[in-house]
Amino acid sequence: MKKLEKKLAAGPVDFDSFFSQKALRMKASEVRELLKLVETSDVISLAGGLPAPETFPVETIKKITAEILEEHADKALQYGTTKGFTPLRLALARWMEKRYGIPMSKVEILTVAGSQQALDLIGRVIINPGDVIVVEAPTYLAAIQAFEYYDPEFVSIPMDDEGMRIDLLEEKLEELKKQGKRVKMVYTVSTFQNPAGVTMSLERRKRLVELAEEYDFLIVEDGPYSELRYSGEPIPPIKHFDENGRVIYLGTFSKILAPGLRIGWVAAHPHLIRKMEIAKQSIDLCTNTLGQAIAWKYVEDGHLDGHIPKIVEFYKPRRDVMLEALEEYMPEGVTWTKPEGGMFVWVTLPEGIDTKFMLEKAVSKGVAYVPGEAFFVHRDKKNTMRLNFTYVPEEKIREGVKRLAETVKEELKKL
Amino acid sequence: MKKLEKKLAAGPVDFDSFFSQKALRMKASEVRELLKLVETSDVISLAGGLPAPETFPVETIKKITAEILEEHADKALQYGTTKGFTPLRLALARWMEKRYGIPMSKVEILTVAGSQQALDLIGRVIINPGDVIVVEAPTYLAAIQAFEYYDPEFVSIPMDDEGMRIDLLEEKLEELKKQGKRVKMVYTVSTFQNPAGVTMSLERRKRLVELAEEYDFLIVEDGPYSELRYSGEPIPPIKHFDENGRVIYLGTFSKILAPGLRIGWVAAHPHLIRKMEIAKQSIDLCTNTLGQAIAWKYVEDGHLDGHIPKIVEFYKPRRDVMLEALEEYMPEGVTWTKPEGGMFVWVTLPEGIDTKFMLEKAVSKGVAYVPGEAFFVHRDKKNTMRLNFTYVPEEKIREGVKRLAETVKEELKKL
């Protein structure tokens, strides 16, 4: 670290003078830096967003990869088309039709380097500086970062246990319309949201699509966690209710196979996909082909459907333990969401506690979390935090929550 | 195709109204579309830019991949850091020190999704709209596309058999300085250039670095083909002569291992790498880890150094046959470069022939090439073309060049 800083400081070249205006604005997150340090210590980190490596179907991947390198090495190791590896695109279209009732004939598939790349591509092809886009409050941190580069005007809509408050969205749409402003798109992590853990209800999903028609906007539905359901009944994705191609659906293999492959996909109207495909050409030519081939066989040979229940079985007790521990240890005045799936619980502390300031104390007590502030585009909520329950084993989750509760109690005393 | 167009036309949503200004400007290349059709026909295509799959070290990759999935699956299938898989970054730094005499202590390594992603990242962190950047005439097509998105003012410098005309660059720098304009960076494919096949001489490399100091600019050295030398003596990369960190070196495994892994790297001053790393975070979080792990073992265990001579041995006869066939069949007035390595020969026809118009005729005669126009940022040269000699077997190269020569002769008659 010291060596690096010395390097950074030294030398006769004024590197900052070469950076673009937008690059000068880019800053590493302080919280991220702090959490990096935590990872190598004895602190119990509930801060991460990683799937548990125990859920990776390693034996299946070994078998599939060996088969691919035996039978399809010439294709799997070569450049592919920008739109993606055709057998995978077909397998995904079929899978989404079967699983989500989204007709294959209505969507085109583009494979991407994880759904993060889809967010950047959407920013690139949709957002002009000043364009109004709607996100949830709170919303996925890296979506804010991806969109922010393109200088939109963010509007954020509060959530409750049924997801985005569509009634408030409608009010806002009407208000903006009166101001002569058009909303270009609404971004939602519809199921087991990151960071809040909540799921948009069926009724709201349908209503959101109606509003998209009425107010002429696009919906970006980000679905990374939707297969990780531990209780309750599955709800079809918003895309299922989309008649006219207004919903851009983002899927990923990061939580149902392995994130290290960096394979995600976009399912959307061909006209939107075509533009994203052209934009992607100059960004990375194509998504890694070997990873796409592995994902293809994983879906095509039925491993995906067979493996999902195993992931669910592995994570469910972790979610249960976290919710139980919160119930057991947290003092009055603290509330949290009760996710039916996904990876995160969202905790709200009494007003007056700033979770960003509290983090250092928590770390000194041996537990880490992500302060909620950065999940709000306007950074206007200080008393929230995100807890992850997929990466750390049950006993550590319990102990981590206990330590966190102690920290909170001490902070409460100061109020 | 027809079905897709029908889909594109139909529907009540005016998708174009959602696109950003920059997205509306993005167009698919007509030539690319034509060449796509060619790929499935009997036409001999000298248009591609693909390595031959016969050069992929499939058995080594099988072995390495099995080992990785046996011993390191938890890491190789997990999210990695944005900067890249540390063992690979170290192995590359060591390899570059040994092979190119670039001290490890002077560079930081960032791994990327193929060097194409590095071009986009460089555009993102360096180019403000209107910034002057210098490229070669002709230059790598996809670099133009990557940089163009960020709205630079392109200045292009002609080349000869020793690469970029550094004397003309100096004149231009002086002229721009007098106009109060600063050149921010010079982009060069220094060795076996794409598309021209030529290599910048040792003397010019040194002079370019001096000029960078004198006129205060950065150099982006793109080195995808530098290991593919079939004759002549190796020349150190420009980065070798860089004292102060002005050279950003781009490397890739696409031509020395397999492009389907999409693994490239940037070697540059830590201050520049840090900014690119932050920019990459919102673009794709990290480069695919499995591919990075494969590349790591490939370098670390010495396979890379062992395999390069085999690739060279495979391509050399193809280059030789292409040069012989050009000599044998091309009419007077046609000239071409004599590359000592790489993948491409650059052909210049007599003035008055437009290779873009000639392409359809060539295809009807059973041969395809890439018209040179698109490799010039100002699209001001019509009588050039790029021929690839790595993908097609020797006998087809000979036949392809013969067909091409016939096409050219017919065109010449019309002049």
UniProtKB/TrEMBL annotation, chains A, B:
Q: Which residues form a coiled coil?
A: 159-186
Is NAD among this UniProt entry's keywords? no
Task: Identify the cofactor(s).
Answer: pyridoxal 5'-phosphate
Q: Which GO terms describe its biological process?
A: alpha-amino acid metabolic process
Domain Aminotransferase class I/classII large: start-end pairs: 44-404
Q: Which UniProt keywords apply?
A: Aminotransferase, Coiled coil, Pyridoxal phosphate, Transferase
Superkingdom in the source lineage:
Archaea
Xref: InterPro entries? Aminotransferase_I/II_large, Class-I_PLP-dep_aminotransf, PyrdxlP-dep_Trfase, PyrdxlP-dep_Trfase_major, PyrdxlP-dep_Trfase_small
A molecular function (GO) term: transaminase activity
Question: Subunit arrangement?
Answer: Homodimer.
Family indicated by similarity: Belongs to the class-I pyridoxal-phosphate-dependent aminotransferase family.
Question: What is the name listed in the Swiss-Prot or TrEMBL entry for this protein?
Answer: PLP-dependent aminotransferase family protein
Q: Which organism is it from?
A: Thermococcus waiotapuensis
